[in-house]
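Sample entry (508 residues):
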Amino acid sequence: MARRKISSALISVFHKNGLDEIVQKLHALNVEIYSTGGTQKYIESLDIPVHRVEDLTGYPSILDGRVKTLHPKVFGGILAKREEDHLAQLDTYEIPSLDLVIVDLYPFEQTVAQTNDESQIIEKIDIGGISLIRAAAKNYKDVLIVPSQNEYQRLLTLLEKQGAASEIEDRKWFAMKAFEVSSHYDYHIHQHFSKETEETPFKKSLSARTVLRYGENPHQQAIYYGEMDALFHKLGGKELSFNNLVDVDAAVQLMAEFQNEPPTFAVLKHTNACGVATRTTIHEAWQAALAGDPVSAFGGILIANQTIDLQTAQAIDEIFYEVLIAPDFDTDASEHLMKKKKRVLLKLNAYPREKKVFKSLLNGVIEQDADLRIESSEDLKIVTEATPSVGEINDLIFANKCVKHLKSNGIALVKDGQLVGMGCGQTSRVDALQQAIQKANHFNLPLEGAVMASDAFFPFPDCVEIADKAGVRSVIQPGGSIKDQLSIDYCNAHQMSMVFTGHRHFKH
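Predicted structure, serialized as tokens:
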């Protein structure tokens, strides 16, 4: 029979977000619910009756929770065919049939991305959950499996449309998603044990492949290989495009530099930061970042390093943007932002930690180490007679982080924790500087007392001279030119300070 009634459900999930609506709907449809541990307590907190799996099996959760559902009275109810012989065996052994299984696995990928603690990583290898997924998916002819929080909404839609019943097409589709989740999960465990995680960008093609609407332009086809689930939880909005993915990657790489800093906001356009600011609140950081270039911010990618509150959400909502990324959103903020259905909201679970970067070219692929170096004040070598103040040093570090993520040739002008001017992708460093000054002047942003960062050394003193006349008082650059002394001499003659980092940050 194609249609199966859902009389009972087993629920065992890690992520509870969105589960309340499902549980309430199942209860309203008179579905008996079985559950374990934290999920059981969560369901009870909703004042919804739930059977403890321990009461079904006759065994408590043992071995620090490693064994909860691994029992014939659980797996028998899932794997039994709804045929006379199997149903008779269920009656003999007093095993209830389980028609719906909802599972969300321990976050193994996220744990690997967040820690090197092997004991923590091992404990996030889900055993019972993955077994439940595979068992229910195998018996899809009779059982509906929901294998991750990403499918909560689809289940809710099914229940609202069909009530406590599922069609064979539904069950087969969910089974397909279940084995996709299972294979992806096991693949990343294998990656961890084989210590080849640096090759993940290409090896992910084995387990995840998403066809995009089109590529950089509508006449180009495109495919995304990989899984974003380890990094993001998508709260709402349209599907991410090729260009969105490229910009989102640039945004999180930039904000990774500021992840442990006070409230910071960044606005990016075509992978380049057009506004970055650090302030005492995330709302103030947003205002200052937007002020850096409110014109380029239109249709841009926005990212914050702290939770978005309602005040900030309302301010952001005054402009058109493509994607907003943050580590979290207050409930009222997310509700406000999600009123615009096409705007993409991404909750950032973890920053990427890929150690290798790949690029296809000339019938092949080139590989390099990711530029993960972050300079601190201890790395700065003062090369001028004038010494930068504490405030200037903070701005120099800030500017250096910004310029590292601008396309070369890149220049960043910063004052008081705000990107006030940027030049990027120019064929000469002078052009990049002039572009940065022009932007600052156009938006009436102060350059007097600002600092300048360059992604590479100055071959001539022309840039420090132009910067000096614009009001810049301190400079950070890698150094290493055979004519470094000319720039140093100019700074000394004009009471400017300059520091060398010893490390170039080209970005092609």
